[in-house]
Amino acid sequence: MTWPTIPNTFVASTKAVASQVNANFTALKAALSSYHSLSNADYTVTDIDGYRFILVTTGNTNRTITLPTVADNDQRIITIKKIDSGTGTVIVDGEGAETIDGQTTFTLQAQYDFITIIAKSTAWFIVDGSPNVTLPSQSGNSGKVLQTNATIVSWQSALTNPMSAVGDMIVGGTSGTPTRLASSLLGYITTGATSTTVTMTIATPAVVTHSSHGLSLGDKIYLTTTGALPTGLTASTTYYVIKIDANSYNLATSLANALAGTKIATSGSQSGTHTCVSGGVQYTNIKGDFSGAAIPEGDFGQVVEPTTLIAQTTATTSEADVTNASITLTPGTWRIEYSATVEVATGAASGDATQIYCAITDSANTHIGRTERIASCKTVAAVSNYIDACLHAATVVNISTSTTYKLRVKKVETGTGAATVLVSAGNQNTTFFATRIA
User: Fold this and answer.
1) What residues pair up with 224 in beta bridges, in sequence order?
2) DSSP state of 150
3) Percentage above 90 pLDDT, the chain
4) Given a cut of 50, is residue 181 above it in pLDDT?
5) Dist. CA 391–CA 344, nearest whole Å
6) What is the DSSP string of 311-342?
7) Strands 208-209 and 194-200: what pairing?
8) Using CA atoms, how far apart are residues 382 and 400, in angstroms rounded to an integer?
9) What fold characterizes domain 194-278?
10) Whole-structure pTM value
11) CB 327 within 8 Å of CB 432
12) Distance CA 424, CA 388 (A)
C-alpha cells in the first residue's frame, strides 16, 4: 500500500499558522502579566500598552501617571505602586476631566503605597489600595499652617483655599479654614479651633479676660498679637488654662502647673490686639478646680443645691412644695436626687394608716422620674409618739434651656385620725441637689 504524499505547501502553511497562534498566545500571556517599571519619569498609560502593573521610583521629584480614556478601556484594571522611599509623590491623574472616585487626581505619598483602579462608564473607581497619609515634620515649619486635600498633608505658608469639601480632613481652623501653627501643635492633630480677642492684666498672677470662653482646667490655648504681649508670655506658645469663672482665667506653662495652681505672672508693658486660639484635642477627663474650691459652673461634677436651707414642711392631702427645696439648672445632663426625712407624729387613731409621697417636679409641677412612697404601719391604738422614715430617689435629665426643679410632698390617710406629717423635722435634714454629669 502506498501512502499519499502531503504537499510541501500545505506543511509550510500549517507551520505558519501554528507559529502565528503561538506568537499571539505569547503576546497575550505577556500582556496579561506585564508590568512597567518607571524610574524618575512621568508616564501616560495608552490603550494598547497592556500594562496591568506600573511600579514607580520617584526619587525626590513628584511623578505623574496619566490614565487612558475610560471609554476605550472599559473594565480595564490597573495597579500603580510607589516603590522607593524618596520624598517625591506619585500623582495618578485621570484623562481630561475624568475622575478617580470623584477626584481628578489621587496621590501616593509614602513608600509602598499603591492603588488599584477599574475603568467603568465614564470614570475610574478604586477597588484596592493602601495609601498612607502621614503628618509631615514640624522641623523648619514654624509659623506655617497644616493643610490637606484628603491625600496629601503639608505645611503651607498661607492657605490656598478653605477646605470644606467632603473628604477633607480639617486640621485646626474656624469655619472650615485651618489656622493651627506648626509650633503650637506639639504632636496633636487638632480640630475645631476658635480665635477670640482677649485682654490681660500685667499682674501676679496675670488674668486673661475672655468672654464666655467655655474652657476648663487643663485646656490648651495659645496667643497671637498684632503688637507685643506682656513679659512672661510668648506668642504662638502653648499655655494651659486655670479657670477663674465663665469669662476669665489664669495661665500655666504646663499641665502639671495648671493642676498645681502655679500661675504665670506678667510684667513690663503690652500693645496691640491679643487673640486666644483654643480648641482641638482637649483634656476632657480633667475637669473642675483641683484647688479644693467648688467645681466651677459648666464643669463635670458641678453640684447645685437650694440657695436657702430646706425648712420643715407639714404635708397635707394636696401635693405641695417642700419649703426652699428648689434648684435651677443650666443646659446639660444632670442627676437630680433627694433624701427626705419624714415623721408621722401625733393624731393617728387606732387602725389608721398614713402614706407619704415625695416627688421631683419641674416648675409646672410635672413629675420627673419616679414618685417614692412610704406607708406607716396601722396603729393599734392612738399614738402620741411618731414613726420616723426616710425617702430617697434620683433621676437623670438632659435639658437645653435653664429649668427649675422642686421637691414636693403629700400624705394619704385611711381611718378616722388626722396624723401630722412633718418633712425635715427638727435636725433631721432633707437634702435636694443635682450633679452635672455631661
Assistant:
1) 275
2) S
3) 20
4) no
5) 13
6) PPEE--SS-EEEEEEEEEE-SEEEEEEEEEEE
7) antiparallel
8) 51
9) Elongation Factor Tu (Ef-tu); domain 3 (2.40.30)
10) 0.36
11) yes
12) 11
Task: Give how far the C-alpha of residue 347 lies from the chain's centroid of Cα atoms, to the nearest Å.
Answer: 61
Q: Which residues contact 223 (CB under 8 A, 6 or more apart)?
A: 198, 229, 233, 235, 236, 237, 239, 274, 275, 276, 277
Beta-sheet pairing, 145-148 with 153-156: antiparallel
What's the pLDDT score for residue 153? 61
Q: Is the separation of the CB atoms in 392 and 337 below 8 Å?
A: yes
- Beta pairing, strands 274-278 & 421-423: unpaired
Residue type, 329: L
Q: Does position 12 have pLDDT exceeding 60, yes or no?
A: no
Quickly name the fold that domain 303-436 has: Jelly Rolls (2.60.120)
Q: Do 250 and 238 form a contact (C-beta atoms < 8 A)?
A: no
**Rounded Cα distance, 11 and 2, in Å:** 19
Contact 394, 370 (CB under 8 A): no
CA 214 to CA 245: how far, in whole Å? 9
Residue type, position 430, single letter: T
To which H or E segment does residue 187 belong? none
Work out the pLDDT band at 36, boundaries 50, 70, 90: confident
Q: What is the pLDDT of residue 261?
A: 87
**194-278 and 303-436 have identical folds:** no
Per-residue confidence (pLDDT) for residue 27, from 0 to 100: 56
